[in-house]
């Protein structure tokens, strides 16, 4: 639950987080009461003190402050986060405390000049996700066989995004030429994988036609998101 709360900080910051955190607090209290073997009449703050676990509201404030501070490290990387609105009270409090204006650049939505229902959807194959998990060597041989038999005339490109410790980045490869970029520490793996696909497609669009492209990604959720022509995510 704590990991989910930390991951959802941008959303909770923009909404009425008091109601959401109050609901989650009751779940945390029940878990602490069970773990400590406390009576139902025990005060909630006594449970927090005995377990050494702060209330979710305090943890939320700590997570949000750390998130804003880490985001401000890389203001040149725009991100799609409603929590960065100028009216955010925690941001104003943090700026007043450090005596410095946080340079945060929000990524604006990208609107197509054509109605989404008139756009041709990309051909995305998700059937590879249903393949049994063979040992790596066998699995790779199976994918290579599909590429050779069905996409021999296509330009091959690969994308990936990852988080190592606190660092996040993405990379893509076109005909064996690898390009990589570092993202802000607070960026999610989902955003990193989406940006990898977006950057790769942007680079492919610069190649002279005619061309057929095959883009391989290991992110099932990203490929599903790309299929949604009504997605509010600006990266999609």
Q: Report the strand count.
A: 4
Number of helices: 9
Q: What is the level-2 CATH architecture name of the largest domain?
A: 2-Layer Sandwich
Q: Provide the structure class.
A: alpha+beta
Mind telling me the C-alpha Rg? Answer: 23 Å
| Share of residues in helices | 40-55%
Main sheet characteristics: 4 strands, mixed
Q: How many structural domains can be distinguished in the coordinates?
A: 2
User: Element order, helices and strands?
Assistant: HHHHHHHEEEHEH
Summarize the structure.
The protein has 236 residues and is an alpha+beta fold.
Write the topology of this structure.
Layout: H1 2-7, H2 9-14, H3 17-36, H4 44-51, H5 56-71, H6 89-98, H7 136-150, E1 155-164, E2 167-174, E3 177-183, H8 189-204, E4 213-217, H9 220-226
Parallel strand pairs: 1-4
Antiparallel strand pairs: 1-2, 2-3
Helix pairs in contact: 3-4
Task: List the defining traits of the structure above.
2 domains, alpha+beta, 9 helices, Nucleotidyltransferase, domain 5, 236 residues
Description:
This protein is α+β, with helices and mostly antiparallel strands and 236 residues long. It has two domains: 2-98, no CATH class; 116-226, Nucleotidyltransferase, domain 5 (2-Layer Sandwich). 44% of the residues lie in helices and 13% in strands. It is built from nine helices and four strands; from the N terminus they run H-H-H-H-H-H-H-E-E-E-H-E-H. A four-stranded mixed sheet has the order 3-2-1-4, covered by helices on one side. Strand 2 and strand 3 (177-183) form a beta hairpin. Helix 3 crosses helix 4. The chain starts with a helix and ends in a 10-residue tail after the last helix. 17% of the residues are buried. The model has no long low-confidence stretch (mean pLDDT 76).
């Amino acid at each position: 639950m704590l990991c989910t709360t930390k991951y959802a900080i941008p959303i909770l910051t923009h909404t009425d987080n008091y109601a959401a955190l109050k609901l989650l607090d009751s779940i945390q209290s029940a878990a602490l009461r069970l773990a400590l073997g406390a009576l139902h009449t025990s005060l909630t703050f006594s449970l927090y003190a005995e377990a050494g676990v702060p209330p979710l509201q305090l943890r939320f404030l700590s997570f949000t402050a750390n998130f804003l501070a880490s985001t401000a490290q890389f203001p040149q990387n725009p991100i799609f986060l409603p929590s960065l609105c100028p009216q955010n009270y925690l941001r104003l409090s943090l700026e007043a405390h450090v005596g410095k204006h946080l340079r945060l650049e929000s990524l604006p939505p990208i609107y197509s000049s054509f109605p989404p229902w008139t756009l041709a959807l990309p051909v995305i194959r998700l059937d590879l996700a249903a393949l049994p998990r063979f040992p790596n060597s066998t699995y790779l041989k199976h994918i290579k066989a599909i590429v050779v038999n069905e996409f021999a005339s296509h330009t091959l490109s690969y994308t990936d995004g990852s988080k190592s410790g606190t660092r996040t980045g993405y990379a893509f490869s076109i005909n064996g030429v690898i390009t990589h970029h570092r993202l802000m520490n607070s960026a999610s793996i989902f955003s990193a994988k989406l940006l990898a696909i977006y950057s790769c497609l942007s680079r492919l669009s610069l190649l002279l036609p005619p061309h057929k492209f095959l883009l391989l990604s290991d992110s099932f959720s990203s490929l599903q998101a790309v299929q949604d022509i009504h997605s509010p995510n600006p990266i999609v």
